[in-house]
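re: ur question from yesterday

yeah so i grabbed the chain u mentioned. its 329 aa long if i counted rite. heres the sequnce exactly as i have it in my notes:
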Amino acid sequence: MNVRRLIPTTAVAGAVTLGLVTLSACGGTSNAADKGDGGKLDVVASFYPMQYLAEQIGGGHVAVNTLTKPGVEPHDLELKPKQIGELGEADVILYLKGIQPAVDEAIAQAGVKNTVDAATLTTLEEHGNEVGHAHEGEEHAAEEAGHEGHDHGSEAGADPHIWLDPVKYAEVAKGVGSALEKADPGHAADYKKNTDALVKKLGALNTEFETGLRNTTTKTFITTHSAFGYLAERYGLEQEGITGIDPESEPSPARIKELQDIAEKDKVSTVFFETLASDKTAKTLAGDTGLKTDVLDPLEGITDKSKGDDYIEVMQSNLAALKKALGAK
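ran it thru and got these structure tokens back, copy pasting raw so excuse formatting
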């Protein structure tokens, strides 16, 4: 069963940027060719998955600025006044509406003419019955901390982690390509060619996952970050998240027992954690259940700890980790 994690109360506001990723093409009063940066289209991406699309599709015609810098835990991101001001000067903004209300508000105030929300470029879904409960719990935790609870997608209860499904990510890529063509029609042919090339690479990645995960000993994996609902659904897997647990806290005895039973029943071998957050929860659970730990990267950022230099390489590392943990044959 696929579930989403509860964002710790101290990180609710920041969790926003984590999924804050969509494309906005800003048609300003001046053309790209009139700019002082070599005539390149100014693109602002909220975090790495949007940055990757902009760079791959835009190529040499774009200058990309990412709000979430490498190594910064997306939950910790706070927009500085300068960043908010620069949004209004962008030709293209990539963000995911509903993840970070503060950023949504800044983008709305920026007055960028052509704005594309990545969530509108594919279909967002809820994953499992626990999604609603997790969301309610997140709101409650946030209220106790004196903050408002926030949705994790453009629709209430929707899972925003669309980039972890190569098929959905390819759909978003097509929309981003169209937005760049609209913002900079003079280079439309190049954007279309680059989009087609990226979609082809993502199609090959999808085939790798389909083939690699077709025959496995188990279909269940446990993760401290329930970001992999779309990936699990795409390839017939079951994601078990340690929901409602602050990354810095230990799982409740009841949840440990439940996951112990699931691990035994479904022959689970591994508890996954992510690169940009603490591995304490995973190690605690693994120690209590006799399981191993490994990294499953939600690809919210690329750092020197990432197992790969770009989206494709890190996703291939994720595939290798899943094949090992699930007992691929």
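noticed a couple things. The mean pLDDT is 78. also The radius of gyration is 20 Å.
anyway ttyl
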